[in-house]
Each structure stands twice: as structure tokens, then as C-alpha cells.
């Protein structure tokens, strides 16, 4: 059994790993947390593109995405606008979006996903 791990974060986690033809990506949060939901979402989508490429995949192969929003009533529409502009319409993954109390007050969104190679 081979597991490839990429971009470790200290002693806690690998940001992305590959096992059995599946890419597993840990929850990603924005670096620049001063931005609104559109800016934070765009940051994460760019980071996801990077991590998928590191693992040998891309956004057209996303199988499932889990999205957490700090305030779903306020931010759902703007997050969806950024997502819809980014994701190929012929490659729509399964997805769940929920409201959550995220790790820091200024984090408005977190995204984790699984993709095929």
C-alpha cells in the first residue's frame, strides 16, 4: 500500500495526499483573512488548483467538496458565484455546504475535498 504525502504542515498534517488513485485534501483556509467572502473563496480556489496539481490532478476530477461557511445566510450566494466561475460545468462534483464556527473569527470559509487522479 502506497500513500504519497505532499506539503506537510509541521507535525499535524499533510495538506494533500494520494492513496489508491484518490487525492485527499485537508481543509484549506485563507491566508489573507482581511478579505471578504469573495476574496477568501478566490484564495482557496487558487490554493486548491495548486494542491491538486502537486498531487497530479485538477479541478475537473473533484469527486466531493465539503465547504464550511461562518455565516451561510450572508455568504452563500457570493461563495457560489466564485465557485461557479471556477468549476468546469461539465465536471460538477458532489458537494455539501454547511455553517460552522470556524477556527478563527476572521476565517469566513474552509474547503476540503477528494478528487480522482
UniProtKB/TrEMBL annotation:
Lineage, uppermost ranks: Bacteria, Pseudomonadati, Pseudomonadota, Alphaproteobacteria, Hyphomicrobiales
Gene3D superfamilies: RutC-like (3.30.1330.40)
InterPro entries, alphabetized: RutC-like_sf (IPR035959), YjgF/YER057c/UK114 (IPR006175), YoaB-like (IPR035709)
Designated name of the protein: RidA family protein
One Pfam family matching this protein: Ribonuc_L-PSP
Alphabetical list of PANTHER family matching this protein: PTHR47328, RUTC FAMILY PROTEIN YOAB
Signal sequence, start to end: none
Amino acid at each position: 500500500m502506497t500513500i504519497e504525502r505532499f506539503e506537510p504542515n509541521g507535525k499535524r498534517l499533510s495538506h494533500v495526499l494520494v492513496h489508491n488513485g484518490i487525492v485527499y485534501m485537508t481543509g484549506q483556509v485563507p491566508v489573507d483573512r482581511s478579505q471578504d467572502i469573495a476574496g477568501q473563496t478566490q484564495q482557496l480556489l487558487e490554493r486548491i488548483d495548486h494542491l491538486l496539481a502537486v498531487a497530479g490532478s485538477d479541478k475537473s476530477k473533484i469527486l466531493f467538496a465539503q465547504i464550511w461557511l461562518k455565516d451561510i445566510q450572508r455568504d452563500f450566494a457570493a461563495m457560489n458565484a466564485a465557485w461557479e466561475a471556477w468549476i468546469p460545468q461539465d465536471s460538477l462534483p458532489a458537494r455539501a455546504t454547511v455553517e460552522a464556527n470556524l477556527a478563527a473569527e476572521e476565517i469566513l470559509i474552509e474547503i476540503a475535498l477528494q478528487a480522482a487522479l
